[in-house]
Fold this protein.
Amino acid sequence: MLIKFKKRWELSENAITPEAIYTDRRQILKAMGLAGVAGAALAGFGNPAFAAASEDPSASLYPVARNAAYEGGRPLTPEKLATTYNNFYEFGSHKSISEAAQALKIRPWSVKIDGLVEEEMDIDVDDLLSKMQLEERIYRHRCVEAWSMVVPWSGFALKDLVAFAKPKSNAKYLVMETFQDSSIAPGQKQFWYPWPYREGLTIEEATHDLSFIVTGLYGKPLPKQNGAPLRLAVPWKYGFKQIKSIVRFHFTDERPISFWEKLNDKEYGFWANVNPEVRHPRWSQATERDLRTGDRIPTQIYNGYEEEVASLYKDLGRERLFM
């Protein structure tokens, strides 16, 4: 007899909206040709931050099929919360940047792939999407500020982009960069920040099954405030690692210094893996505030994905893996 034991981060069947209800709603909208427009209206309740979804040329791609192998371990965070409580320092250092972020122009959007690859290229984001297999995954998201949410990301496996880029054998790291345009992003006028926002992963992390490039959210194109048109999701790491609005994928043999690490390496390191026992220098990481309920709940090591990712770090000795 086959007995399946759920992973600690998987949802029980009664903890999430029934698949039939969620799927039927999305399929009805798609059949009517309204997946982008009506979906935004139904979920956004008039919030202007959702208007861009109906204007996105990729809107017809959504909703995409859910990959049931990836569940979030808790009920979904309401869409309105996840799309109006955002960090995006390019548009301000507060959480209410969703309206300001609408100044971001997401088309045309060119992505550069360069460094230690067989052939460097610039590719239009919609051309890139046409080459990738899109799916939906439910992930937990844990901010270093000790709040968390559970959301349905749409996108594609980062390892597929790595394969598309064809890195050379000596490429050890993948570095990602955000757009830079201070004419629309007032935060980039603050010279004390090391713009553009920059983050990196080892090749082993980048090709891990959980590493995901996000292009959509809640069955629609990714809102600008959440990092449109491309952002990173690596759910076992703190949110600051999960770079938004990516314009460049650079392969290198040198470990990069990321944005927050460069700003303050005593508080933020390269790895940024979640660990409740390693406090931030200014606050505890033992618990987190669930955006859906407002309750404080225990934080899990690697944000509940220990079984999947701990082996990536077993031989790293004295590295500061958790901050």
Remarks:
- Residues 17-311 form a domain with the Sulfite Oxidase; Chain A, domain 2 fold (CATH 3.90.420.10).
- The first strand starts at residue 110 and ends at 115.
